[in-house]
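Handout, section B. The chain below has 96 residues.
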Amino acid sequence: MITENTGKTGAEDLPETARQDVPAIDDTAAAAAALREKLTDALTPGYQAEFDPEEAVRAGAFSEDALSEADAAGSSDDLAAALTGLELEQGGRHGS
C-alpha cells in the first residue's frame, strides 16, 4: 500500500523503540560523575585538576570543620589537669 507523504510525522509513524519514553538526562548524576573523575585526577602527582566554584563547594573545599573557640578553650582544661597531675607525681619539680 502506498501512502501519501504529507510531511507530517506522528507518533504512530515512529518505530516501536522510538515511541518508548526515553529517560531524561540526569544532570545531577552527570555532574557527580564528572566531579568524581576530577577528584580522581587530582590524586595524580603533578596533575592540576581545575574545579569551578560550584564543584569546589560540592567537593568540600570550603567546609568549615575547625573547632569552635569554646571547644578549643575547653580542650586546654584536659591539658592543665594532666600537667597538674604530672607535677604532683614529680613532687612539684619541673624538668627533672
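Note. The chain has two domains: 25-65, 67-96. Compare this with the example in section A.
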